[in-house]
Amino acid sequence: MAERRRMSYSVHREVLDEKAMDEMGQKSVSKTSLREKVKKSVRCSGHRMKSCLLGTVPILSWLPRYPIRENALGDLISGISVGIMQLPQGMAYALLASVPPVFGLYSSFYPVLIYFIFGTSKHISVGTYAVMSVMIGGVTERLAPDSNFMTWDNVTNTSIIDTVARDEERVRVAAAVTFISGLFQILLGLVQFGFVVTYLSEPLVRGYTTGAAIHVIVSQLKYTFGVNPVRHNGPLSLIYTVLEICYLLPESNIGTLVISVITILGLIAAKEFNAFLGKKIPVPIPVELIAIVIATVIAWQFNLQQEYGVDVVGVIPSGLQPPVFPDTSIFGQVIGDGFALSVVGYGIAISLGRIFALKYGYKVDSNQELIALGLSNSIGGIFQCFTVSCSMSRTMVQESAGGKTQVSREFKKLSLVFSPIIPSIHVKEYTHNQQAPKEAVLAAIIHVNLHSMMKQFLDIPALWKTNRVDMLVWVATFILTLLLNPDIGLAASIGFSLLTVIFRTQLPKYSILGQVPETDIYKPLDEYHQVQNMPGILIFRSSATLYFANAEMYQEALNSKHTTATHTHTEKKKQPNTSCRRFRAINSSFKNMISDTLIPNMEEQNHVSVIEVDAERDPSLPRAIVLDLGPVNFLDTVGVKTLRSIRRDYGEIGVEVFLAGCQSGVVDNLQTAGFFNDKVTKSCLFTTVHDAVLYCQSAITQSQSMEYKV
Question: Taking every annotated instance into account, which residue ranges of this chain make up the domain STAS (predicted)?
């Protein structure tokens, strides 16, 4: 890149304070009242109604203008690719949710169609997701544990689990929590609460998904080794589960373990082969679907369940489920879980959606995404689906296969329509009276699909080099998610992330500024060698806003920048009249004259003559202090009181304090809090630091001239 040519400019204007700036710029003093805002928001017109309709149902905007020739083929190929990939993932993630695998296929069909109508992202692949599934599994196993469905078998004289009744109850629980999470998302979208995603920073999301991936892997170890550990809930449940699985390792089913290892190695090799041929073939090889088909055939032909005791999923019913409204009696027990699911699912989807929107130059409406996901989950709950979100792996496949629209940001690709076609065919035809693949194969698919999340551990050394606070957030989120489970861990992680922000505002960097020679730019003296200190003027700046949490430290930092000012201020508090010196002298001649001649009978008194002389100014004190409030974006009452105290205390020792670079909101805060009065006007506020410095230099020059004449 060629070196940029330096340009110069010259501006001639008067020194401007806020009062002069308001007059020159004709600042508006009128403010819209709350009544007018409400009246304007409910005002209806044809144009506004049309915009609202197109914004609420985006398909009406982009579908009539969809460029078939340019995008249909790419969307068709990507849709088929994602649909084939979604088949085994839906079945596998249903195991994480502790529901029969067919409900994973339903969750890959109904919610995708709803998002196709109401969503605004062109690239994310909505459907089952590992993190959401494991959170659903925690709820279903907590409210419908195996112990509630134990029955006595008279043939074997042992207690067995009524799996049919258990699975039916778990499906009802999953549908109820999915419906509740959808309602939360719709409600948050209607109240324009999309900004909540700003509290889910990228290090937090990546640390959280990595920790949740560990939960997913541990939950599938029982299928990998063929053991039956006791389900643990609550904090530290992951540790207890790992310890129990280690205790049960001698009881592992060898057949299940062999199948798991072979499947994992085969899937890894096939995925590497897919990556090698990625640029040579338009559609990736559906290795997961092939693995399921092979496992199904082997399980059917060799009767692995009876011969070797290998667990299989069982018979998958054909057809689609009729809509059933969720059981309202469960709602009260899953409200907290529903809110956690709504926030996590939205955070993952909008984070990935924004990445692709930035990459391809279109906009994702965060509030509309909340509504779209909410409708997908709430309607999906009626059709007995479990909560869905966005999958990183499927989204990457969808993009690499050509599913993208670059003509306009409102265009929506059709691959989300093509994606449900394959699952629907599978549900209606392929699964009819077929025995499903082994649970070990589905667990192996989950293990392999999570390898991309394990790569997120590489974020730690990268963040160590760039931002160690973000690295701390990543590590803390990961540990909290591991120890406290995904639901409580998310709340604790958000709280920890907010604490880091608070601590950083409490511990900002305080600097004394100096002027870059022959410019109106001011930089910290301790960072630039050529920056010149301004004689008689102290320019002070904090890198954070000024509010109750750091107001006291702000004043202490200002005092510590000049120890003499602090010492003089302390002495002033001890002696009320520090602006002058008192000299006491006993006028003995005057006393003798009074006692001997004028008042001979008067008792002798000590007459004191007081001579007041102006104090000599401490040369180490600045004549003026300029507070650069450019980084301050708001002031609370404590911050305003701090500024008032600084002006008063330094004014009493003859140091003028000026404010510079105040934003309009800060000026309004000062005015509302009563900072200005008859003595303190907007004349002490300057538009820039340079304006304040020029004014101070002029005042100092005049003061020195008067002192010289005197």
Answer: 527-696
